[in-house]
């Protein structure tokens, strides 16, 4: 994987990760009701779940590559189409209100419960498997070490996820009355959506 492809992968991962979802809402709630330590516990559990899902996806991709390298071309086309789909979905996204109610903070909590909840939110979500299965082939160079590329993409995704969840958790502590303005979130969805579409179209010509 060359540097430019890696930057493209990081961009796709970033916009996918920072879009509000179940893991982010959990980080917000943990930051609001508990503390940043609870956010960290939940976030670590979440990225462990993501790692397991990425391994499952990679095993499937490796199995296909063992059958025929020509399948990689098909996977790349599917991945490009999936990026375009994500872009359209982002542009028409109606989930533009993420408000937090003011509540008192709980100083005591069950760390195991916090960890388990973060882990199961990740491991029971089929979207990461679809994402990894569709996106990884776009950036794999079959002439180089597949495993090294896999770990690079996986750990990069996990690192961005951890940073994103911790950031949301921190912001929820400092902005308890509201979290994101609706206009700003709409603009974010449109920009990221168009970027996904452009990347998807670009990948078709690689």
Rg of Cα set: 18 Å
Mean pLDDT: 79
How many domains? The number is 1
- Which overall shape is indicated by the principal axes computed on the Cα atoms? globular
Oligomerization category of the chains in this entry: single chain
Largest sheet: none
Structure explained in plain terms:
The chain is an all-alpha fold. The chain has one domain (22-95, 108-203). Helix content is 77%, strand content 0%. It has eight helices and no strands.
List the helices and strands and how they pair.
Elements: H1 3-18, H2 22-33, H3 36-67, H4 71-91, H5 111-123, H6 127-139, H7 146-174, H8 182-203
Structural key phrases:
206 residues; globular
Provide a quick synopsis of the model.
The chain is mainly alpha-helical.
